[in-house]
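Risk register update: the risk of archive-format incompatibility is retired. Evidence:
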Amino acid sequence: MTERRRRPTLQDIAQETGLSAATVSYALRGLHGTPQTQARVRKAAERLGYQVDPIARALASGRTGNVGVLCGSLTDPWQQSVAAALGRALLGSGRNALTLDAGNDPEREAELARRLVDQRVDAVIVLPVDPLAEHWTEVAALVPVVAVGDALPRAGTAGEVVFDNVTGVTDGLRLLARHGHARVAVLTPTDRATPDRPAEQVVHQVAADLGLTARLHTAPHDLEGAAAVARELLTAGDAPTAFLCLADAIAFGVYAAAGELGLVVPGDLSVIGYDDQPVSRLLSPPLSTYRWPLTQLVEQVVRYAVAAIDDGARGDRTVLVPTPMPRESVAAPRS
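Archived output:
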């Protein structure tokens, strides 16, 4: 039977370099010693195949190297792409992402947030279901929290990356009004109005200014659920001639419902999405939507998280502005 190779230790590096184990430990962490000594120790560690024991590092530093990424709903392809990009960026910064799905359930969100704290993550990045929930006060007092998409008014966050939803919703309604639509359904994944997601207030105010009849409806991200909501609206009296969907995933459901009912986009029904999923360009017709700067979002979120972990930084805020992506899913309604 092949003998298992012994894992190199700090003492092995000390013998290799002629330094004490304490000096080697400090040099590997970049805490003490000249740059030349630190370089000599790192080269010896690499030559011997030394790897830092994550458990020992956690015990010594009080950190685990893990960052929780708590998503509101991973049935939303946009949140999937954000979670994947955050995982890659955190790995590049020497951290591991623990990604969890709240399933659009506030109670599950609270349970998972507390579970991440119990697992001693170094920080929590959250795309919140309920930004106003009391549990964020408790969580943020125990671990740095970075919020994506919405502020957490009851918690002292380490950073917030939010969206200029006023601009996005206003531009979408104006586009539909310019094409002559008078009855618009706005589909949103949540009915919770918050300071950074003021959809209801914006819809009613802008619609009144434009002379539109715009009604807000809640729809899930999954295809069948969104299609069911759209189908009910399209078969009711005084059906809308256009939909503004605050997630491309919801717009996919509107396309599905229109196809089932024999309606043509945009001849019978105009549709606008909100987060420019790659598949949106492949729909027939391609979906008009809005692009949010994902690369900037991820870089800023990770910067906030790392600064909070390493330096205790708190309280910064970034607002992202959407770029309209007009395509062929919007036209004038049939008379």
